[in-house]
Predict the 3D structure of the following.
Amino acid sequence: MTVDAVSPPSSIYTGSTTDPATRKQTMDSEVFLKLLVTQLTHQDPSSPMDTNEMISQTTQLAMMEQLTTLADNGTEAFALSMRQAATALIGREASYKDADGASITGIVTKVSFDGPIPQVTIGGKSVALDLITGITSTTSPAPASAAAA
């Protein structure tokens, strides 16, 4: 009876193992599945993996994918809320501190979404949304006598 030669296990990295810059640096679902398949492929036939352990590992994979999706959705929701907040400032008076620490106030005339943080234009100067220190309404409130009538 002849026995076939055993080949070494394949690499879990996506790139060349000789170049560390191309190795995968995060544990994503692709790496997790490769590890699981490698573990199943090279298990001892006389002592196979416990079914409960395999179910546990696949459950961990599913949970990891769901948490990644949840984190991505949270990031998208935050970006959307920043855009909505910036858009709501158009036509309103806003304040910010310049590089010298002086408070500058002006009307928001434009909003730009080019970068990661929305930029609002106040008095011709582009200011990051997170640098806004105050907002006031440009419309005057109705007189008290008109409100009572």
Residues 51-88 form the longest helix (38 residues). Strands lie at 93-97, 103-112, 119-122, 125-128, 132-136. Residues 12 and 30 are 9 Å apart (CA to CA). The mean pLDDT is 80.
